[in-house]
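Hello Y.,

Per our agreement to keep a running log of every chain we model this quarter, I'm adding this entry. I've kept the format consistent with earlier entries: sequence first, then predicted structure.
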Amino acid sequence: AQDMLSSVLISRTWTSEAEHPISIMLSVLDQGHSLIIFPEGTRNTSDELLPFRSGLYNLSTARPDVELIPCWIENMSRVLPKGQFLPVPLL
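Predicted structure for the entry above:
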């Protein structure tokens, strides 16, 4: 799924500076790519908004010139259920 969706998976148990989530995100931005960040840090099983994790704040502190555009993905728990790696086709 990582290659198919051209995604960066963030490990919650990083052990080196190269694995640090902010380092990875900055590297992606330096390559001219955009990021889609789930500020809750995970996919939710319901439509309730979870508390935001600190990654978005840390990214904006490390790179204040990056434009942040908030958005909401409706039915994410239905289209890409937690625990699944491939989107569910919706007809």
